[in-house]
Design brief:
Elements: H1 2-13, H2 23-43, E1 49-55, E2 58-65, H3 86-93, E3 96-102, E4 105-113
Antiparallel strand pairs: 1-2, 2-4, 3-4
Helix pairs in contact: 1-2, 2-3
Length: about 140
Amino acid sequence: MTVSRRALDAALHDGARPAAAVEGGVQRSLLALEELTSNALRHGRLPVEVTVTRTGRSWLLEVGDAAGDDPPTLAADRDPALGGLGLPLVATISAAHGRTADGSRKVVWARVDSTLSEASDAPRDPRPPDARGGRGRGPGP
């Protein structure tokens, strides 16, 4: 996981990021990538695959694992010292987030705007889209 974050960090600081991208967007993308990846490694099944795609003004971060039958769940009413804050954090710092499952694979994704220095102040519902009674916002730009 640390290797993936370092590789992305190096790429985004060595000229691979769009000219309009700001440091705040880079840092939120790195944090979201680390949170999604650590969740997949901790709660999913191997193999874990990570994809980062530039989509206009955003980066689409997708982390897949072999636990397609095990949706991500929030740690409700848990002592924050015990963890469980990753998905709410990703919800707060991303423009959109969600998950898909296809057979034996699950992909949890976040779209982070690369041009904003800070995350939007708009409140986000950190529950997975299926727990909100809808599909949530899609991963597109």
